[in-house]
Amino acid sequence: xxxxxxxxxxxxxxxxxxxxxxxxxxxxxxxxxxxxxxxxxxxxxxxxxxxxxxxxxxxxxxxxxxxxxxxxxxxxxxxxxxxxxxxxxxxxxxxxxxxxxxxxxxxxxxxxxxxxxxxxxxxxxxxxxxxxxxxxxxxxxxxxxxxxxxxxxxx
Length: 155
Hints:
Elements: H1 7-15, H2 19-26, H3 30-37, H4 45-54, H5 59-66, H6 82-98, H7 101-109, H8 119-148
């Protein structure tokens, strides 16, 4: 039995659709969908958008871009649980706020230029913001996966 599932197949299966049903609703052939799911062809962006809408899984668009030529410009997103992503995001934002990074960023950038002396601090702040952004995306992914799997939330 095959354990590997590519991003398009995983999203379809989370929605509980067969290849035939998904292909019909996407207005593509089963052969085309199979080729996308077996990594024999890369689907066009417009098809991936329709997949994401049909599967109620917007994160598929991110995964699609990240797996292509433009992937290097996106922050890395590691699949994690809803709880872990939430705790990490709250911790990182709290640390950023407590360390005064927002004020430091404003002081550095308010004159429209970054001096050589300011550059190390600016780069450190930007690295922290990239980490916060990645963690937000991890939380968004975990939220979408829980929704796709029928999560009802907790009171």
